[in-house]
Amino acid sequence: MKYEGSCHCGNVAFEVEGEFDTAMDCNCSMCRRRGGLLAFVPRDKLVLTVPEANVSTYQFNRHVIRHHFCAVCGIAPYGEGTDGKGNEMAAVNLRCIPAIDLDALSITKVDGRSF
Questions:
Q1: pLDDT band at 27 (very low <50, low <70, confident <90, very high)
Q2: pLDDT of residue 115
Q3: Is the dihedral of CA 31, 93, 44, 59 positive or negative?
Q4: Using one digit for the tens of pLDDT, what is the confidence trace for 41-73?
Q5: DSSP assignment of 24-86, as one string?
Q6: Which of 111, 33, 30, 37 is nearest to 77 (CA)?
Q7: 114: helix, coil or strand?
């Protein structure tokens, strides 16, 4: 299924294709503060619908994940990186997709402090 998502102000907007019934609640220093619920898709399943120049990026720790956010409203709708097999992936913040029923998600808590 294809979904539309965005930051709060719409400056960073995207379409993503996937079946979202589970989410990851990570407790790393970034996710803890941000409060996102993440789902992973192959990077080619996420398409920006705004100019790439609208996206700001932050990296920390080992600099393996590109955490993308909106410089206008501060919301972080997605990140990018590679999985253990070298596949390009996107970590989508399901809280940024209005059509997702967050109460219906199966949420897995992940200890990301070692990432």
A1: confident
A2: 52
A3: negative
A4: 999 999 999 999 999 999 887 777 899 999 999
A5: EEE-SHHHHHH---EEEEEGGGEEESS-GGGEEEE--TTS-SEEEEETTT----EEEEE-TTS
A6: 37
A7: coil
